[in-house]
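General statements about sequence and structure are easier to judge against a single worked case. No coordinates are needed to read the tokens, only the vocabulary itself. The sequence in question and its structure tokens are set out directly beneath this paragraph.
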Amino acid sequence: MAVWVAGCGSVEDAPEAVGPSELVEEQGAELRACSTWLDCRSSCVCSNGVCAPGGIGPPPPAGYCDVAPVRACSTGAECATGCSCSNNVCTPGGFSPPPNCLLAPPDAYESDNSHTSASSYVGTPQLGHTFHRAGDADWVLGATNIHQLMTVEVYNLRNTGPLRVDVYAYDYPTRTLGALLTSTTTTVCSDFTPTCWLFRTSVNVAPGVYAVKVTDTRNTPAGSDWRPTPTYDLKMY
């Protein structure tokens, strides 16, 4: 038995059927295109030209990877020059050309990227050092007027990866870097606890000035600075 279905209205008014290829194209238009993982938000990777869930940890919610990366903030001090903090996101502040608001701002010790422009250790811990660019290095000059076992400690690590702590002899009048006296690239122990998760190195020294270099050794390409900024504190004793 044949079944016939009758309907009213012009055939020309009926919506056209959408095939599988059109559906894929429409869905693909909603995805975020990328060339490297730097074009994607954290917890996302660049796979086959689009941002997709990936990395360590639970998968992000649906649609998360289709949004452009932004630099989160709570105050304008957490944004680069020319950017303001609006709705907890660093956004251009109206300057022309507009700044790159994905970049992290420098910390209060910049520019301390060489021993000739190093900050001075004045006897109290230096708080809030950051690696605001990939491969950043921070220099600090400290002095002693006695023979002592001098210890440098990099602690209270936040969002940090591998780093290196070096201590050099230093001729302050001529701003000349001397011999490398001690160095470390490992935390004091392997547990993820405050007592373990710090870098410490010590050396016997005579009265004089000494230069400390803390280097970000993460294998992180330039341009990823919008991700959580590596931060640490430093003390010498």
